């Protein structure tokens, strides 16, 4: 597949996955063998910072449900980042 075709396909997949349910997305990831690992740490940390900042803004505007969603994201990201950092540290010490 050429680079322009790959980019176009990637955009279509991203658009589709953005609309798909998590259950189907998980199934697709399992079928395709995709995994999230320590290579995702920079993006995960960025998302954590964004969500933490978003909580303050949403709280100030009184958007309770959106704030709760951001809080859930922070609650999910924090232990995931910690686990990947521990894995990375363990691998560097070996």
In short, what is this structure?
With 94 residues, the protein is an all-alpha fold.
Could you walk me through the main structural features you see in this protein, from its secondary elements to its overall organization?
The protein has 94 residues and is mainly alpha-helical. The chain folds into two domains: 1-35, no CATH class; 37-94. The chain is built from four helices and no strands. The model has no long low-confidence stretch (mean pLDDT 87).
Q: Give helix % range.
A: over 70%
How big is the Rg? 17 Å
Q: What is the string of helix and strand elements?
A: HHHH
**Main β-sheet description:** none
For the record, the count of structural domains works out to 2
List the quaternary state of the chains.
single chain
Keywords:
2 domains; mainly alpha; 94 residues
């Amino acid at each position: 597949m050429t680079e322009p075709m790959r980019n176009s396909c990637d955009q279509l997949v991203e658009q589709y996955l953005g609309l798909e349910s998590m259950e189907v997305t998980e199934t697709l990831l399992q079928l395709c063998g995709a995994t999230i690992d320590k290579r995702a740490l920079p993006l995960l940390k960025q998302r954590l910072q964004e969500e933490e900042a978003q909580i303050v803004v949403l709280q100030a505007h009184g958007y309770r449900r959106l704030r709760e969603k951001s809080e859930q994201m922070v609650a999910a990201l924090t232990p995931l980042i910690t686990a990947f950092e521990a894995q990375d540290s363990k691998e560097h010490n070996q």
